[in-house]
Here is the input.
Amino acid sequence: MGGIFNQLGQLFVQSAPTVTFVFLLLIILNQIFFKPITKVMNQREAMTSGALERAREQTAAAEAKTQEYEAAFQAARQEVYRQREADRQAAIKVRERALQEAREESEAWVKEAQLDLSAQLEAVKKELAAASRSMADEIAQVVLSEGPSAGGPGGARP
Here is the structure.
């Protein structure tokens, strides 16, 4: 058994420079190659994550702005509808006033026409009354002037 340990010891002594060389190579590769690559990969990951996070933030901000614009657009639309309704109500009031004025004017014309007709009727009645008196007087004179001796239709017969 002593020979095995002796061979192992010689093997270890012979492999020590290789192990040292591999260890030094590992340290050198780590310093020159792996650390820069790891650093670049970490930076790349950070940039990618940062870019994704910024994109999410910008998307959220864009959605918030979109909602604000939609709310403002809706408010503007409501204002336009309110203004249209106010204009419509004002037009209705103007039309109602014009109709009321036209009614009042036509009623005034009708009253004036009725008064004019009443006045004409009274004048015609007076004319008829005067004419009937005048005719009655003429008839009475004709009848009285002819008398019973005149042989007229109401006179004496032979």
About this structure: The chain is about 90% helix and 0% strand. The radius of gyration is 65 Å. The helical segments are 2-146. Residues 18 and 54 are 50 Å apart (CA to CA).
